């Protein structure tokens, strides 16, 4: 009986020791042990992330494939609407967010951002046949759409306060829905970051046209959790992106997906918004 008790205690000690070891590992160690990094994203944010003929494509795919190679892990994509992406990160559904997201003061208080991977300054997309909008101020009194819970919508609303009469804003679950309403004539424009709407206009120049940017200069980055457990993971991802920037791979990806490159800082410490 004594031997059985000792054996049971030893087994319990091993289990507790294994659990303690697992808890001692940080996010990067757990990811490397599993060989997989889970990345949350939405697939309605071309050209960063979208579905083309059934395939998941975009700048995010290329950048995270390279990050995965640097870390020695596979990338597992978890897709959902943008409104659920950041809450999903905080709930532990995935390790990192692709997005990307506009780097703002409010978001930096809650999340840690990677080095910028593109410019995010807000501009307007209009109908190619609409001659009434030639500059941002021309949206006064018109209905303009943007994405729900996005920095682009917030900037549109702030800009609208400077106009008389103020434009009516309409928010959408995805920007693709906003583009569809614009094409159908149900709204007069869509406010989104310049790289996104430039891509949309390039794909369908007979339908859409770009109006000059109106927002404050901002940048896109990938958000992760801002805690000690994820510090080494974010350090590793930062290093991988800066390496891609230094050796020209990031510029090649930007050229591939945007038709241009962006002069971005290595880090954003004081966002403009």
Automatic annotation (TrEMBL):
Protein name: Amino acid ABC transporter
UniProt KW Repressor keyword: no
Keyword Glycosyltransferase carried by entry: no
Endpoints of the signal sequence: 1-24
Domain of life of the source: Bacteria
Family matches, as InterPro entries: Solute-binding_3/MltF_N
PANTHER family: AMINO-ACID-BINDING PROTEIN YXEM-RELATED, MEMBRANE-BOUND LYTIC MUREIN TRANSGLYCOSYLASE F
Species this chain originates from: Alloyangia mangrovi
Coiled-coil ranges per UniProt: none
Keywords recorded for this protein, A-Z: Signal
Residue ranges annotated for the Solute-binding protein family 3/N-terminal domain, each copy included: 36-261
């Amino acid at each position: 009986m004594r031997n059985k008790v000792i054996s049971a205690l030893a087994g319990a000690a091993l289990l507790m020791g294994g659990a303690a070891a697992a808890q001692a590992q940080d996010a990067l160690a757990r990811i490397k042990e599993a060989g997989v990094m889970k990345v949350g994203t939405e697939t309605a944010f071309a050209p960063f992330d979208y579905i083309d003929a059934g395939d998941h494509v975009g700048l995010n795919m290329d950048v995270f494939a390279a990050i995965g190679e640097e870390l020695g892990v596979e990338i597992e994509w978890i897709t959902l609407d943008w409104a659920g992406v950041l809450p999903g990160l905080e709930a532990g559904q995935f390790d990192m967010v692709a997005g990307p997201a506009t780097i703002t003061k409010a978001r930096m208080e809650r999340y840690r951002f990677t080095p910028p991977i593109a410019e995010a300054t807000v501009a307007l997309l209009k109908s190619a046949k609409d001659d009434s909008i030639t500059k941002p101020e021309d949206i006064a009194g018109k209905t303009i759409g943007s994405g729900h819970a996005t920095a682009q919508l917030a900037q549109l609303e702030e800009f609208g306060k400077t106009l008389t009469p103020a434009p009516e804003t309409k928010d959408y679950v995805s920007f693709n829905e906003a583009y569809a309403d614009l094409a159908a004539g149900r709204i007069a424009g869509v406010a989104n970051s310049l790289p996104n709407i430039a891509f949309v206009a390039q794909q369908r120049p007979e339908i859409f046209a770009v109006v000059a940017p109106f927002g404050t200069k901002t940048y896109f980055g990938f958000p992760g959790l801002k805690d000690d457990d994820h510090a080494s993971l974010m350090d590793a991802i930062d290093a991988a992106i800066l390496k891609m920037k230094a050796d020209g791979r990031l510029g090649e990806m930007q050229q591939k997906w945007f038709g241009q490159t962006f002069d971005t800082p290595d880090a954003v410490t004081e966002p403009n918004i």
